[in-house]
Specification:
alpha+beta; HU Protein, Chain A; 2 domains; 3-stranded antiparallel β-sheet; 5 strands; 42% helix; DNA binding; Hist_DNA-bd; structural constituent of chromatin
Length: 97
């Protein structure tokens, strides 16, 4: 599903015009991005959770030369699936609705 299909699906399910659904998705993206930037965990119960995590420094390899190189510590994002999303992936539609 691409962004246009998602906007159309949200508009249909919510019974709102497509342009309002697009604004809602844009706002959701902005709020989630700001929260992760601040280090807050975002939880959509049953669907997913998103959090910023610290990655430790580690040693990697240059793929062209094979030489070891130092990768500094930094931040990454962790996504965790909720129970409804896991049930949908399993094909168990009884618990999805």
């Amino acid at each position: 599903m691409n962004r246009n299909e998602l906007v159309a699906g949200v508009a249909q399910k919510a019974g709102i015009p497509r342009n309002q659904a697009e604004k809602v998705l844009d706002a959701l993206g902005d709020v989630v991005t700001e929260a992760v930037h601040k280090g807050d965990k975002v939880s959509l119960t049953g669907l997913l959770s998103i959090e910023r995590v610290m990655r430790a420094p580690r040693t990697g390899r240059n793929p062209q030369t094979g030489e070891p190189l130092s990768i500094p510590a930094g931040y990454s994002v962790r996504l965790s699936c909720g129970s409804r999303l896991k049930a949908a992936a399993r094909g168990d539609l009884r618990t999805v609705s």
